[in-house]
Design brief:
Blueprint (H helix, E strand, L loop, with lengths): L2 H7 L3 E5 L8 H11 L3 E5 L5 E2 L2 E2 L13 E4 L3 H14 L3 E5 L5 H9 L3 E6 L10 H12 L4
Parallel strand pairs: 1-2, 1-5, 5-6, 6-7
Antiparallel strand pairs: 3-4
Helix pairs in contact: 3-4
Length: 146
């Protein structure tokens, strides 16, 4: 496992950009799951005052000091703009959740000197990895994609 993935896998402060209250959305599931795994998660979404009963930040620039990692689960177009906001806010690492074409945002983050993970599901790496994600992790290991 790469060093950057190991940094993300350790519970700590993490902004979840694109957090949601929508049932069955990844933005909601990831928020709850990462909190259950011991992360201090800061939801970011301009459309919500709260996510799962917790304060939701309207923008990355509103986050408290000391948040250096972010999980992006928003549209690729919105991600490009959010990368610049993250850079200005001092975010050092961005995980672009698999499932969307984030190429332009990934390039912008890398060009800004940020550490980047993309095309992977954070829930396959943040311990404890159980159930569905444990099975996917096993398959990724078997096929050399872990």
């Amino acid at each position: 496992m790469s060093e950057i993935i190991q940094l993300f896998a350790r519970p700590g402060k993490l902004a979840l950009v694109g957090a949601s209250n929508k049932p069955n959305s990844f933005g909601q599931a990831a928020y709850k799951e990462l909190k259950d795994r011991g992360f201090t998660v800061y939801p970011v979404n301009p459309n919500y005052a709260e996510v799962a009963g917790d304060r939701c930040y309207k923008s990355i620039s509103e986050l408290p000091q000391g948040v250096e990692s972010a999980l992006f689960v928003l549209s690729p177009a919105a991600a490009e703009q959010a990368v610049e906001e993250a850079r200005v806010a001092g975010i050092k690492r961005i995980w672009f959740q698999q499932g969307a074409d984030y190429r332009a945002a990934v390039k912008a983050a890398q060009d800004s000197g940020m550490q980047v993970v993309s095309k992977k599901c954070i829930l396959m790496y943040a311990p404890p990895v159980t159930g569905f994600h444990a099975f996917h992790r096993f398959l990724a290991k078997v096929f050399g994609r872990l």
